[in-house]
Specification:
Layout (H helix, E strand, L loop, with lengths): L2 H55 L1 H11 L6 H26 L5 H14 L3 H10 L5 H16 L17
Length: 171
């Protein structure tokens, strides 16, 4: 065997190693992306659960929210609590929107969150919060909320609050 043949074999081995390395890296990147998406989804779920838990654990907050949903009078302290909760809620949705734009959420996942966002934008306290505080959010999120509000205004304006009101009671 001459040096040219050995060199050719070396080039073939080298090219094969490069291709194998590229395939390995592609698999690792795909797995890493899948893990990152899963972690993102878990974080979103944990935040949502925490926000739901505060209504379960805090009867006064739940009462204030229910009064707001029924367009009943809410005292100044409860209104302030609702505004603080709305801040947390909108930051949660802004993060979800960011994760969607970054490719960390699938389209169908985002659309589910967006439908929920449209429903909470019907709350009296949320409308007031957003009217007063929206300038503190990203331009992309504000545009998304504006589009969701416009769609919501075109839909039936009555929201079903059955998930909070007692069965058989008037929401």
């Amino acid at each position: 065997m001459n040096w040219e043949a050995i060199g050719a074999i070396g080039e073939i081995v080298g090219a094969t190693a490069v291709v194998a390395t590229l395939v390995y890296l592609a698999v690792q990147i795909r797995n890493s992306t899948r893990i990152a998406r899963s972690a993102t989804r878990q974080s979103i779920a944990e935040t949502a659960m925490a926000m739901g838990t505060d209504l379960v654990a805090d009867r006064d907050l739940a009462t204030a929210l229910l009064a707001d949903l029924k367009n009943q009078e809410v005292d100044e302290v409860d209104w302030t609590r609702l505004m603080a909760r709305n801040y947390v809620g909108m930051r949660h949705y802004e993060n979800i929107h960011y994760q969607y734009l970054s490719g960390m959420l699938e389209e169908d996942e985002w659309q589910g969150f967006r439908r929920n966002l449209k429903s909470i934008l019907k709350w009296r306290s949320m409308r007031e919060y957003w009217r007063n505080e929206s300038q503190y959010f990203s331009d992309a999120f504000r545009a998304e909320v504006a589009a969701a509000q416009q769609e919501s205004d075109c839909e039936n304006s009555r929201m079903d609050h059955a998930y909070i009101a007692k069965p058989g009671s008037e929401a």
